Amino acid sequence: MIFLDNLVNGISLGSIYAIIALGYTMVYGIAKMLNFAHGDVIMMGAYIAFCALQYWNMPPLVSLVIAMAACTVMGVVIEGLAYRPLRQAASLAVLITAIGMSYLLQNLALMIWGANPKSFPASMISIPTISLFGGELKIAGATLITIVANIVIMIALTAFTSRTKTGKAMRCVSEDRGAASLMGINVNQTISITFAIGSALAAVAGILLCSSYPTLQPTTGSMPGIKAFTAAVFGGIGSIPGAMLGGLLLGVIEIFGKAYISTELGDAIVFAVLIIVLLVKPSGLLGKPVREKV
Amino acid sequence: MTRAKRNRLIYNCVTFAVVIIAFIVLQGMIENKTITRALKGQLIPICCWIVMAVSLNLVIGISGELSLGHAGFMSVGAFTGAVISGWLLNAHGMENETLRLVLAIVGGGITAGITGVIIGIPVLRLRGDYLAIVTLAFGEIIRNLVNVTYIAVADGHLVFSFLKKNVPDGARMLVDGASGAVKISKISTFTMGFILVMVTLIVVLNLINSRSGRAIKAIRDNRIAAESMGVPVTKYKMMAFVTASVLAGMVGALYGLNSSTVVPSQFTFNQSINVLVFVVLGGLGNVLGSVISATLLTVLPEVLRAFADYRMLVYAVVLILVMIFTNNPTIRSFADRLLAPVKKLFGGRRSDKGGAQA
Q1: Total domain count for chain B?
Q2: What is the pTM of this model?
Q3: For residue B152, what are the β-bridge partners?
Q4: Does B141 lie at the interface with A, CB-CB under 8 angstroms?
Q5: A293: pLDDT confidence band, cut at 50, 70 and 90?
Q6: Closest by Cβ to A272, choosing from B127, B141, B356
Q7: Interface test with B, best of A94, A107, A111 (most B CBs within 10 A)
Q8: Domain ranges, ordered by start, for chain A
Q9: Contact at 8 Å (CB) between A42 and A206?
Q10: pLDDT of A146-156, one tens digit each?
């Protein structure tokens, strides 16, 4: 039963990574940039939900909507102010700007909410723990919600990118930006929409993350951010199912590594697996191999 | 002498002159006691970050590989240096601080170089963002491994243990897992920092302008073309990568021996990113730029102490604004037009260095 317990925990953690990784992979696929500030948008989302719940006494669902709306606005503003002027610049310059943005968000949070960790209220997800196999396997409400949310988001996002006009425009821009703009697609607007979706997902991820691991501080987002980025690369960056698969696998590997090999070396094991996978399949699990032209 | 050759010579001379003059001025200030305490404490870290930035520039600017794990090599050097210095002092009673420092730096360089070879073999097969993420992963793995390493001196011998602390009673801990290297005797000197900066500049500038350096740049500009001209790609990529890791390891030892404790969490991904910021802000492939930006950005947070709580916030805003102002095509062409008369005055030397120049 310990095995099943770990598996459920792994899938839950992996679902959180997967939702964060979706934000990375969509932005990478369309804007061809690594948005390092994504992890910090997660942290901001969690803080806003925390405020809504704790200080303004909002019901959980309203808090979720507030956090998502605030993060969406934040994502679009960040993109418009910091990344849009650098659309034609070298990718490293955009990367450094994103890092600067990450510092900015962390320090804003530090200024507003202070360095002391806040305890995320358990009232966010008020679903009782489920007992299976006569109480031998307990699944916490937060875990269940995380897994369900992951599946719903996955289905919704796939439908969105394959069925709607905006989704098709997004795929066009990621395929060939120049050709897309010749076909009358508003590239800047499409990129803004991508950032909006990614940031709204970040708010969801932040709330789910803090419901399972309730310590909230300005650096909460950075490590999950890096891991989710790893997950996106693991699954093949730019691919939506790849981000899902990468996130889930990474979460499961991390929990199993911590449980069966060594608690301290959990992160090292995750990264070692990543390196091995990339050596065997350099473009990630579901990534398309890039043909080189002479 | 061709024009390009002359320009290169001038550039190298200016780079060395800037560093030497800065050293002489600072040394004079130390002797006159006109230097502020805050600045004096910053001197060795500044040397360390200059070497880190220049060596990372070799990997990113010259060799064109985005490495996000450079702090890992610094970490290897710092802990090796602390162990060597502690071992020589406690087991062999070596009192000579300069000799111990030199041996620690050499040791740090060697271990970091070996780590560089081990990491370089798999990593350099990958490209672009994948290479970046794998170097990041290696940096984190190094930190994790140091976290569970215990090294002590007992009866004149080094005792290693891994995962579990397993040392005899009365042993003197040198590296104590997550608490890092403890009770280090602080033996780093500013002069040694200056020497390391000079060594780094000599090595990197000579490498860039040598036959190997041209091969490395050819691979960066067009790997396939270079390969078809018979340039062994892996060999030259490894050369740049391992040289950079040796330099980072050497300066890591200096950095480690500059404080009484060093913890593995000092060398996280964020630290690698900091060095990357120095490199990009100074200009990719521009060695003098790295020196200047590493100095300014190390001093800047101290200068911003006046802003107290806001200083990192201001730092972040400055970073973003500088990146936008130096990289936005509209703003750049505007600035070029404004600066055109000034450039004409100085003979209009065309800069052939790519990247952002701050």
Answers
A1: 1
A2: 0.82
A3: B159, B173
A4: yes
A5: low
A6: B141
A7: A107
A8: 2-280
A9: yes
A10: 888 888 998 89
